[in-house]
Write a structure and sequence with these properties.
Largest sheet: 4 strands, antiparallel
Low-confidence stretches: none
Helix content: under 10%
CATH superfamily: YVTN repeat-like/Quinoprotein amine dehydrogenase
Strand order of the largest sheet: 1-30-29-28
Radius of gyration: 19 Å
Number of helices: 2
Number of domains: 1
Number of strands: 30
CATH architecture: 7 Propeller
Distance between the termini: 28 Å
CATH class: Mainly Beta
Amino acid sequence: MSDQLELASPPFDSISSVRFSPTNAHQLLVSSWDATVRYYDIASNEQRAKFDHRAAVLSIAFSDASHAYSGGLDTSVRELELETEKIYNLGQHADSISSICHSREANTVISGSWDRTVRFWDPRASTAQQSSHDLPERVYFMDTVNNHLVVAMASRLIHIYDIRKMDKPEQTRESSLKFMTRALACMIDGQGYATASVEGRIAVEYFDPSPEIQDKKYAFKCHRQTIDEVDHVWPVNALAFHPIYNTFASAGSDGTVSIWDHKVKKRLRQYPRYHSAIPSVAFNSDGTKLAVGVSYTWDTGEEGAKTAERPGIYIRTLGEEVKPKGWTG
């Protein structure tokens, strides 16, 4: 048995995001620059539904096993009904939507945009948009855990909110990384988050502002390689925390995925290199699989696009390598 499966019917253009259902370990969504969101059953390796949009889709999120949400360059927040393939337009931003997430605690959909707002949506309400909150910069990435919402913006600005009181951020930080943020993910245990940059670094951060907890934060170099005595540094495009062990995966434009135990500051595994850059990774709900979206990420512009292979989505079966040493769960 191979430890990896390649999904049939991948998108035709670069992948922007892969996301698993929070409740069903076999349901996977993939958004793409080909203006689609595709819904797969990884157990049967089939595409169950395809949702066509008017422009590239940049971000997707599940709320439950039958509903998902999408946003992208056409500025609309959409609800996708997975079983019926129906699409509902919930409302608009004034510019491209860069990030969508779902808060289980607040049972709300949250969208962030280059229009410098974060908006909250309730699809069941007669007016779906519940609130809009102005930010000082364009929103690039967001993630939520417990009642924390972390928003990474342009000019390396990071806001941490309590989603129950959005009038102002609980904390305002500058990224520990010197270069533009390329990925953000919250820890499963709710203690903090990790960010990654275009310049081959990852920072591990904690919410608790007390000095002793802040002393634990650190950053490290990764997704680098020395070829003929020349150091090559690649963007780190994606981060994802394991739903049980709280270890995390990083993926880069070097075509590699690594698993890290951030508590002991060690890499547990690096998987064999893929044929192209990796824009997105995701663990499934029971932590037995990792989805790896492989596609050209425009790091080398038009020139690289001419020779780029068709995108691929790989489902890797996980073993002990994602577990911290000495784990007693």
